[in-house]
Structures are given as structure tokens and as C-alpha cells.
Design brief:
There is one protein chain. It contains 6 helices and 8 strands; from the N terminus they run ααβββαβαββαβαβ. The chain has 208 residues and is α+β, with helices and mostly antiparallel strands. A hairpin with a 2-residue loop joins strand 5 and strand 6.
């Protein structure tokens, strides 16, 4: 909120701005990626990286405070009442407060992705896709148990993810500096029906 930040800067200076952090249930814009010509080119730019499966789903940001869980879209619209299975899953995670970044996706009985249109149908109303269950997979964390962690490096945020998000709700990833290993992971991802991989620098903060 530009106006709110301006008032804080005017009245409190640097100290006032330093106190700004996330507010639970007030979503922030997601961190976005740039494209690379291929895995090898991406590895040259990033170096050792978290190589993550890129799912063709719907971006979600999930906020939790105790038993209350709310789900927001990439455009910061709340869709909590449309995704009760995601709410129930996150409510069971071993943390009191959380802000998670991830994807919601519809999978078939083999665990392969359904079409993007089927997934997005769940965010509409009165559609025949409403009976199809969504699976939630998370790949980043911005806040946990009273502490904002978006300024911590990727490596530390992934350690938090591994601690508070069960494996079945984590995006598959490989940490490597080997382009061949990254390319193999990329090919396995395509074979599983997904659209590619993300390469994330291990020392980077989360930048909305």
C-alpha cells in the first residue's frame, strides 16, 4: 500500500519502515520467474540450484493462523470457500502461523495432470469440474510461527518447507550443480506430464 508506506516513511523514517512485515490474511504479489533457453543455460546463470518441477496449475498463496486458513490466487483474490480440501490439508500442517506459496492442480487417478482448464474450473462457480479434487503442492514459505522468512535465502526457506509441509504436499525438487542431473530431472518431469522445471538460486531471497 503506497499511501500507507509513505505515511510510515514520513512519520517514522527508516525505523518506521523497518517494522513493516507481512500481515496474515493480507496477500502479497508472488515472486515470478524469467525464462531460459534450456536447462544448461539456466544452470550457467544460477549455478547450484534447487531444480523444481513446474506444475501447470493455479498459483495459490495460503495463509494460516491457528485453525483459520485462507487461500488466495495469483491475483490476490480469495477463493477459500472453493477449495476446502486445500484448507483441510494446510490446517493439519505442524505450525501455528504460515504463509505458503504453491500450486493447486487437478490430477488423474495415475497422478498425471489434468488439463489446465479443468484445474481452473474449480475456481469458477457452478461448473461441472467442481466435483474434481485439487491437490496442493508448495514450493516456498514467506512466514512461519510468528516470523517473516521471505528475506532468508532459498536454501533456508526450503529447510523450513521440509519441516512443516508433508512430502506429499511439496513440489518435487533436486538440489544440484550438475547440468546433466538437472537435465535428467527435467526429462523425468516432462515424462510425468508436467511442463518443465524452475531453477532457483540457493542464496536468493523471496522477491514479490
Amino acid at each position: 500500500d503506497v499511501a500507507e508506506v509513505a505515511v510510515l516513511a514520513k512519520d517514522g523514517g527508516r525505523e518506521g519502515l523497518a517494522g513493516v512485515g507481512l500481515r496474515l490474511f493480507r496477500p502479497v504479489l508472488p515472486m515470478l520467474a524469467k525464462t531460459a533457453g534450456g536447462v544448461e543455460e539456466g544452470m550457467e546463470k544460477v549455478g547450484e540450484a534447487a531444480v523444481e518441477r513446474k506444475l501447470d496449475g493455479a498459483r495459490i498463496q495460503v495463509h494460516r493462523n491457528g485453525t483459520e486458513v485462507r487461500v488466495f490466487t495469483r491475483n490476490l483474490n480469495e477463493v477459500t470457500d472453493r477449495v476446502p480440501e486445500i484448507v483441510a490439508a494446510v490446517a493439519a500442517f505442524p505450525a501455528h502461523t504460515l504463509v505458503l506459496d504453491g500450486e493447486a492442480i487437478a490430477l488423474d487417478v495415475r497422478g498425471r495432470p489434468r488439463s489446465f482448464q479443468v484445474t481452473m474450473g474449480r475456481f469458477g462457480s457452478g461448473t461441472e469440474e467442481a466435483a474434481i479434487e485439487l491437490s496442493a503442492f508448495f514450493f516456498d514459505v514467506l512466514h512461519v510461527d510468528g516470523e517473516d522468512v521471505f528475506d532468508r535465502p532459498t536454501r533456508e526457506r526450503l529447510e523450513i518447507i521440509d519441516r512443516v509441509v508433508p512430502e506429499q504436499h511439496r513440489v518435487p525438487r533436486l538440489i544440484t550443480d550438475d547440468p546433466t542431473a538437472a537435465a535428467d530431472f527435467f526429462n523425468e518431469t516432462l515424462a510425468a506430464g508436467h511442463e518443465g522445471v524452475m531453477l532457483k538460486a540457493l542464496d536468493a531471497p523471496y522477491e514479490a
